[in-house]
């Protein structure tokens, strides 16, 4: 009987301590107007449920999940490495020199063709293979593949394939592997990759947007790919192929971050499986890991805010910057760059404030250590933001990629596969379906992040009560991220 009467007490305590967070959720939800349209969403006004009610429901779902976690989840479940190899035959059939060579060849071929399409194809953004392939098929599609099948880019990575081929050629001539001239500094960690991540999205959202009026974006993308390839080859030559790929190469680091959520992983040339999410906790150990995941959330947030919430402020600041006689294009790029930095700082502040609040709990390690320890809990949120903001864009644009763009990649009137007359079926997804998928992605992503954070807290704080108390600031951060995501979706005009 004593045990039975004690559990409701814990539930009441958890609910009471979550009250400030519920208040935050209420304020955020009331701030959500029933706005016109979400990212790539048409007919937003026809939703059967107002946006503020979605925010309320999402916030309550998080709080209820938190209460359940603090009362029923008493021991860590995702901290232990559960990887085990599949049968040797299955592993050898999928991972061997032949499949690695073919995968690398495919990656190099696609990269070269994308550069060629950007240089020689039409300047029309909607009819050039390179734009949709890089910013939709590659940028978004590989994230989904990584979550489902693990680090797939490692096999298809064109820069790794070229680097390994060059290293193999040197070994054939010299009889040994080419030694790396420099040792990769541990303090650099993922910082070069994070810098490249910002540069890539800046090229799309800031520089590319400014170029829409002159229509030279495919050419710019091709040149940027060549420049990035050159930088990558220099990095591999200085620090070694695998070392640079693991630490400094932007896309390898970015997609591998999401692959840590997957149940599939390759180690030492062997294919294996593990419990989903158990690959995530070690993510924050490397320098710059916190920055990569925060930047991932921040850049997606900026894309959503750029279209709606920040459109008026950007226009106002643009007029002021334009008065400096910099020209329209330069003024717009400077203005949007400033707002991008501001959004990144805002997103980072949400997480760091939560870490500071966690640090106030008795027995907490240093705040810097806490930030690294809980960085992995943000990976599902980064994924949720990507799905919520780009789900409909991906579905619609992939139809273009595999119909008219596949047959006419240069936009010169070709019809290689007889699909050049194909188009995009916008009736494939209704507005309500898209909105429900977006909300579900945000809720599931944040609940998963909250679960990972609570699971980690149980390893840091020996007392489950302290572990639960330490997660109140994280709960507030998750509610804030959820409401922010819903607000950006409801405010977008594209």
Briefly characterize the structure.
The chain has 494 residues and is mostly helical. The protein has helices spanning 2-17, 19-30, 51-72, 88-94, 97-120, 129-138, 141-149, 153-156, 158-174, 191-211, 217-239, 241-247, 250-259, 289-307, 311-322, 328-359, 367-374, 379-401, 404-407, 431-460, 464-470, 472-491, and strands at residues 84-85, 264-267, 270-273.
User: In which order are the strands of the major sheet placed?
Assistant: 1-3-2
The number of helical segments is: 22
The main sheet comes to: 3 strands, antiparallel
Task: Tell me the structural class.
Answer: mainly alpha
Radius of gyration using CA atoms only: 24 Å
Quote the beta fraction. Answer: under 5%
- Mean pLDDT score, rounded? 84
Shape: globular
Separation of the first and last Cα atoms: 58 Å
Following the backbone from N to C, one meets helices and strands in this order, namely HHHEHHHHHHHHHHEEHHHHHHHHH
List low-pLDDT spans. 1-48, 211-215
Helix proportion: 55-70%
